[in-house]
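## Example pair
The file below holds two records. Each record gives the amino-acid sequence first, followed by its structure token line.
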Amino acid sequence: MTAAADAESRLALWLTLAAIAAGAVLRMTGLYWDQGQMLHPDEANLVRGATYLNLQWGADPHFYAYGGLSLFAPRAVTALWSAFDPSLDVLAPHMLALAARWISAWCSLGVVALGPLIVRRAGAGPMAGAAVAWLLAMDVGLIQAAHFGTTDAPLVFVLAALVYLAIRFTGGGLGTAAWVLLSGAVLGAGVALKVSAAPMALVPVTAGLMQARRLGLRTTLVAALTGPVVAAAVFAAFNPHAFIFWNDFTSIMDFEAGVVSGRNDVFWTLQFIGQPPFFLVAQMPWMSGPLLPGLGLAGVLAMPLAAWRKNTVARSLLPLVVFAIAWFIYLATVHAAFIRYLLPLSLPLAIGAVWLILELAGRWRGPATWALILVSTLWALAFSTIYRTEDSRIVASRWLVSAAKPTDVLIFEPSDSPMPTGMLDPPPYERLQLDLREEGDRPEITRRFAEILEQGDWVVMASRRNWMVLPRLRQRFPAACAYYAALFAGELGYGEAKRFENMPRLLGVVIPTTGAEETFEVFDHPTVRIFRKNRALTADQLAAAMDRYRWACTKPGG
């Protein structure tokens, strides 16, 4: 190695370590951002399942959307913590949630560490690896996933591990038997986290096909049979309840598949009705910054042709590229276009962008790469302010308790965070709920709204889940449409008293995320709107006020 190459290698190492350190800070900061309230609904479900299992193999978790490994892991972590603090309540929900986030944070950081190893094994060079490390460290999707005790970050880590093993195998650095056993175990662990990891099998399958001629027919067939057996064994080891409670497990899997496809109509997918084609693709900049998605996707799509033309780096990365293209095509077809489904593309987009710059930028490759990293870093810094600021629902709860009398009646919306939250001993408010998702153009729905509004003193909107979705679906929810129109016009005797939000910001510039897919915002930085009654109206007057907007909410074309 020449002196210049040696210096470049040392610089790349330090840059990579700096990226990992920066990624650790962004992922570990604010890990307790909601003070243990479990305001992410999937995390709350996971914690409940972990509590039911309590490290008892074969017990019924009463929750099958996530696999057994995702339920056992946080409980194992609290058991480890209790070895250092015997007074620790290992089944306390807030401790299980923190343990699940700790796992997510480390898995997210593991992706940052594996990215440069993958690139260097593919032959792209140490500086390319450092650039990929920085892009992954600053990936907003991975930073957000690190703060949720869910399976999203661990699944991306599983993908990165499979890709690393595949590149070591195809590059001759890992024997066939070791590759089959390790890949099968990693894939099985991924499916044991969540069944949606199954498509990641494309990574080892592609690697095996690439080496089929070298291995020969017999070895290839043995590998093709052994890998799935190992994966199935690992899955079964962590998911005995899936077989013991087979009907429950398969029923939930069918239900979840129906939600994703649109066959099952549920409130958390209402936001996707009527969305334009490729809605999810348009969400990519929220996750990875304004520049990376376009460059990364172009690089991924160009790699197969480059591999066919004997580009060694592109050829080495084919297992990742095949998965990325297949996953991208799949995402273009789903109904439930949740933004977290983009997370498995974080790794291929970062690698694809760096590869494309190295191939096309010539003497501008250095400035182009660091410009891309700078833009991603600014977006990550802006987003990370969410976890350095108290959650908007907790701040709003504190204000509400100070402003409302204990005898006041609070009106809430369905399927949203309960408030006040984060309060040890909130006043015993009477709570009423508006059933805003009642369908059809029926006067009795509006009448029920009016009777509840007549009794109330406050209307609390804990997020945008209802008011940004239901009025858009006015033909289906005309009563809710008319209610919001009258409320926002000030005709229901309520005025907006306070609004609480915690949007990404940097150097005084606020970045509203209302254009992002709903779950990108409502789980960790929702806008809370609180309306106070400023004049008393009878139920008849309230119904009449809403009826004045009925024509706009029921006319054709809505």
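Second record, same layout:
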Amino acid sequence: MSSAAPRLAATKPDRIDPITVSVIQGALENIAIEMGYKLMRMSYSSIIRESEDFGAALIDAEGRGLAESAQSTPLQSGPIPGYIKGVLRLFGERGEKIRPGDVIMHNDAYSGASHGPDVAFIVPVFVGERLMGFAATTAHHLDIGALSPGSCGIVEALDAYAEGLQFKAIKVYDRGIRNDAVWQIVRDNIRASDLVVGDMDAQVAAARIGAERMVELIQHYGVETFDTACAALMDHAERLMRQAIGKLPDGVYTAATAIDGYLDSDDPAKKELPLVVTITKQGEEMTVDLTGTAPQVADRPINMPLEGTVDIAIWLTIRSILLDTAVHGHIPVNAGLVRPIRIVAPKGCLANPEFPAPTIARFCPGNQLADTVMKALAQAMPTNVSAGIGNLKVIAFSGLKDGTHWVHMEIFEGSYGGRYGKDGMDAVDTLYANTRNNPIEDIETHLPLRVLRYELREDVAGAGQWRGGLGSVREFAFLTDGGASVEGEGHRYRPWGFRGGQEGQPAKLDLLSNGRPARALPSKVPHMTVPAGGRFVCYGPAGGGYGDPLTRDPADVLDDVLDGLISAATAQHDYGVVIAPGGVLDIAATTALRARRKMPPAT
């Protein structure tokens, strides 16, 4: 990183022209995007290279987000300002200083991090002797040294210490000198260490690239102009959000959903747990209150860190609904967007746990929380939301080959509910996830696994004027003895329908082994051994429907039948659409059937 003195402006400008602000904003965004692409190309594991489960961002010296990598998942890039604030707090408590050449590793879920496997590598940005900000990358790592292989599916952790290694603002490079002892501790305490440490090295390199680019940008414009531009671009984002909030009617909007928890548990405090969201909108500000949400589960890792998971679920959902890029065009993502939004979460609830409550499996509950926020906002903006989403599932496959661990994390897609004017999206990661699937070719090339099926799940979508999206069916077979653990949601509760739309269908998971009948598994399964030939069949959930199914265009229903997405019997039962033999729409019979369905019941 260059340490040349900046070109200083003669005086600190009180105002700055919008073109310069826009150029600096675009430069910051492009730096973050470059960091993301460099990380993808240098990484070893498919969870980063293919699934894009990583983040990259530029942050100012106070921990305020300036720009984030647009191609990464919001649950990775979004928490990075929280990581920085956590590091600054810990350094302050310990009396440590941040210096040029430092690289800081951090994954403390109670100091801004999303959860333990999402490790950040942070490079401070100095211009001369002044700390200007930070360039940081995060990534989900294949293993973090927890009680069982893989960093997902750790669903029986009793506390934070059972979830793997905790890195609380640790310098892995101190003034440019590599701290070999820390790196050796990492290698000695994680599985698949070559892959994981290789990914970590890629993160460091990508963050350093971002820091170098940020220095060049500051030196080009001067410190004062850069500072003024950063303040202006955050103020601009705040104005956009305030204007969007201001258009909503003042009021209180409440919604509730629930998560599975541990459906096979005998303890009622561990299953069927409510999430409650109350949004109070007044003027240009909004308060999101989670009072009524279930208490934390002290000895199971489905608790959600308030900073790093809960805040991101809330901010991302509000931003997506109020400032949809399809309507508003490009929206700058920085700290200004969240200024008008206040979050209230009672201490000790699922959404604001107390240390050392475990949090490693916070992913699916957090996604359900985002869905609950959307359900509440649907009352104020009914044409800007989807019906209920089908939640996600992650399976950590693992095994030993020649004495070396192999680990693979497979993110199984969910689906969106129907939207105003559009059907729900099929077989995609939902809300704050935004990761991609792993190509079958990549899986079968590198791992002792075979993908026997990958197709859409038929005849399950929530019926509506615009139907819910379809989940996928994906079947994995083990070629050698191995094991797996499962972290998921959505087996108990059906995605909600909206405005007369029907509910979607929940997910399910079957295990076939040793020629025995299929064994249905719950949404959370601790690590189990699986013999060669064992198969997991994962059925993705289907989103809820939007609008009265009897108002769906019969031609669209026919298309779904001809595409094999629904049967002719479902078309008639759910939509009142009659398909004659040969796949022909019977318009007269459809009109008559729908008319009978809409008639009020006889008194």
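Notes on the second record: The longest helix spans residues 193-221. Residues 1-13 have pLDDT under 50 and may be disordered.
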